[in-house]
UniProtKB/TrEMBL annotation:
Stated name of the protein: ABC transporter permease subunit
Organism the protein comes from: Nocardia stercoris
GO CC terms, sorted: plasma membrane
Transmembrane segments: 123-141, 182-207, 219-239, 246-264, 308-328, 340-361
Domain annotation ABC transmembrane type-1: ranges: 178-362
PROSITE patterns on file: ABC_TM1
């Protein structure tokens, strides 16, 4: 019976050594079948000590220190062969795991990039659109006279006008005329600003002052400034005083009316809230009324700036020895058409400069409006 079991165990060991080791009783040593001489070991056969493994044999990995440290005299049970892990499995990563690629990072940041691109495009279009319209007008100005659509005698090409402008700057005439016009415009504008704002606040703040000055101001504000030019020249003379007075008159009413409108449009709830805090009338005006009325006041100031320049040019055409209005009239009378258009361009640039300065001042004084 025992010999039959030994023969069966030998056959099992020869067929499956791992199973034979598991079936062997504890303490027994399993004898592996040796390879017959001249026979190549199979893929599952174990190699004897000192024997070189055949090509294609897979050797089991060396046991770790913890597995090798066993008590003396104790025999290890053979473990079933396990396939060797691939490079991806040994590194702890699976081949199908998603990797972080540049396209994924771009997809994560794409909304912010799109918003930034949209803002830049909107700002660019806001700047390019008016410049494109101006460029089209200037191109037509240059092309129309040269192609015969307009007579060059009455409308020279833009390049000819710019050359005349450069000549006036080079010989100093343009600077003299700009300085004369700018001095008159700034003087009259400053006087109008210093008088119109306080009067407008008084009319809007005090009903008695409004009843007293309202009819007089309503009468004069409907009278055009240029209609009073002969009156100013007759009373004040043909010198600088009449021109500055005309500028004051033209700039006074836009500032006055917008100041009255701005002060009266202050929210009554703001006034009641400030009064409940115990603010004095001066502090109430400084902290509540003035900031609320400032946008409307600056609208009138910008309107007054453009009106003062237009009226001043007309006054300089009537009687002056210097100024942009005088330059335009003198060039037209002497049939110096390019110089005449150069004076017109100078007036346009002066108006743009005036408006740009006022816009910058308004933004500086009303920074709380930026939202």
């Amino acid at each position: 019976m025992s010999s039959a079991l030994q023969v069966g165990a030998a056959d099992t060991a020869q067929a499956n050594p791992a199973a034979a080791e598991q079936l062997s009783p504890p303490g027994a040593t399993t004898q592996r079948p040796s390879t017959a001489p001249g026979r190549t070991p199979a893929a599952g056969d174990a190699t004897a000590p000192g024997e070189a493994p055949a090509v294609g044999d897979t050797t089991a990995p060396a046991p770790s220190d913890s597995a090798a440290a066993t008590a003396p005299g104790e025999t290890h049970a053979a473990q079933p062969d396990t396939p060797t892990a691939t490079g991806a499995e040994s590194s702890g990563t699976t081949p199908d795991a998603p990797l972080s690629t540049p396209s994924a990072a771009t997809a994560r940041t794409s909304p912010a990039a799109l918003r930034a691109a949209r803002v830049v495009g909107r700002l660019t279009w806001r700047i390019v659109r008016p410049l494109a319209a101006i460029a089209v007008i200037l191109a037509l100005w240059e092309i129309a006279p040269r192609t015969g659509l307009v007579d060059q005698v009455f409308l020279p090409p833009l390049s000819t006008v710019l050359q005349a402008f450069a000549d006036l700057v080079r010989n100093g005439q343009m600077q003299d005329h700009v300085q004369a016009s700018l001095t008159r415009a700034l003087t009259g504008f400053a006087l109008a600003l210093l008088t119109a704002v306080p009067i407008g606040v008084a009319i809007a703040w005090n009903r008695l002052v409004a009843d007293l000055l309202g009819p007089v101001l309503e009468l004069f504000r409907n009278t055009a400034a240029l209609a009073l030019l002969p009156v100013f020249i007759l009373i004040l003379g043909i010198g600088e005083t009449s021109k500055i007075a005309l500028v004051v008159y033209a700039a006074f009413f836009p500032i006055l009316l917008n100041t009255i409108s701005g002060v009266r449009a202050v929210d009554p709830l703001l006034l009641k809230s400030a009064a409940s805090l115990g603010l004095s009338p001066v502090r109430l005006f400084q902290k509540v009324v003035w900031p609320a009325a400032l946008p409307s006041i600056f609208t009138g100031i910008r309107m007054a700036a453009s009106s003062s320049i237009l009226v001043l040019v007309a006054a300089e055409m009537a009687g002056a020895r210097a100024g942009l209005g005088y330059l335009i009239t003198a060039a037209q009378q002497n049939f110096q058409i390019p110089q005449m258009y150069a004076g017109i361009i100078a007036i346009s640039l002066l108006g743009l400069l005036f408006n740009g300065v006022l816009v910058a001042v308004e933004r500086r004084l009303s920074r709380w409006r930026t939202a």
